[in-house]
Amino acid sequence: MSSTGSAASRRLLDEIGSVDAVGIEERVAKYSTRSIKRASKVFGLKLAVSMVDLTTLEGKDTPGKVASLCVKALHPHVAPDEGKSLDDLPPVAAVCVYPAMVRHARRHLGNSSPVRIASVATAFPSGQSPLKTRLAEVRAAVSDGADEIDMVINRGAFLAGEFGRVQDEISAVVEACGSRALKVILETGELETYDNIRAASFLAMRVIRPGDFIKTSTGKTSSNATLGNNQVMIEAIRDYFLDTGIAIGMKPAGGIRTAKQSLAFLVAVKETLGDDWLTPARYRFGASSLLNDLLRQLVKEKTGAYQAPYAFSEATESY
């Protein structure tokens, strides 16, 4: 961070408080050791299913792959073997696609689906395009039927201490979203420190709306969602809520692949934010492979046996 950026960061941290990094690491190390009884585990696994933003963000995405993704989102698992079906599963929270794929998702989900359509925008994942281009992308996704927009902040501006610019750009995206929900991606792996993650969280929360989200990562860098950066962000959400009464949502994304990981994240939420955040309206998982491991664990809890990975459908090309 430049000297100008460091000075701006110090002023902000004097106001909001810095992060005890050692304390964060000690706290999150305990989440994975919690003993969870079977009924609570099943509840948590199903809750995690309902919180998934089922994601495909590849250059080879096609309308057919998006159609398959939508089917998977609505019906996470219907097993052909009697006794192994999970008929009581909720649909996932959303499908997350590139703006060019939004209209195809809308065609397959219709206008009354419980599954929302999220679209990454603002020159995802780099954020390195002129602001007017980024805003045009947001408006196009909204016009094509997106219910939610996942934007990336300008990390270069943040690290240079141009906090006003960062907030002005987020505010412009809020306006371009209209009534659609916004998730602000901090790209925590590029922010370098827990103090920076806390500072960026507050900058975003101060200009977004109740019901909007802050999000860890794009999933396109070497460092994505961890229990540590999740903890820093949910503590920022807690402190902001206690100060303002405004409830902001949270979305860890990238690197969460197993049911065991997801349960540790939910323990963190329960112990830090409480039960009011244990809902898809306030907490999401950005993931592509997590869903099938959740299903595998649920079938194991029902039948006592693990199923082979091929027993679970993949969101792949359907035509």
Summarize the helices and strands and which ones pair or pack.
Layout lengths: L2 H14 L4 H11 L6 H13 L1 E4 L7 H12 L19 E4 L4 H8 L6 E6 L9 H13 L4 E5 L2 H5 L3 H15 L3 E5 L8 H12 L7 E3 L11 H18 L4 E3 L7 H14 L12 E3 L2 H14 L16
Parallel strand pairs: 1-2, 1-8, 2-3, 3-4, 4-5, 5-6, 6-7
Descriptive terms for the model:
319 residues; alpha/beta; TIM Barrel; eight-stranded parallel beta sheet; 12 helices; 8 strands; 47% helix; 10% strand; globular
Q: Globular, elongated, flat, extended or rod-shaped: what is the shape?
A: globular
The CATH architecture classification is Alpha-Beta Barrel
How many domains is the backbone divided into? Answer: 1
Number of helices: 12
Give the fraction of residues assigned to helices.
40-55%
Nutshell version of this structure?
The protein is an alpha/beta fold and 319 residues long. It is built from twelve helices and eight strands. It has one domain: Aldolase class I (TIM Barrel, Alpha-Beta Barrel), CATH 3.20.20.70.
Can you describe what's shown?
With 319 residues, the protein is of the alpha/beta class. The chain has one domain: TIM Barrel, CATH 3.20.20. It is 47% helix and 10% strand. The chain has twelve helices and eight strands. It is globular, with a radius of gyration of 19 Å. The mean pLDDT is 93.
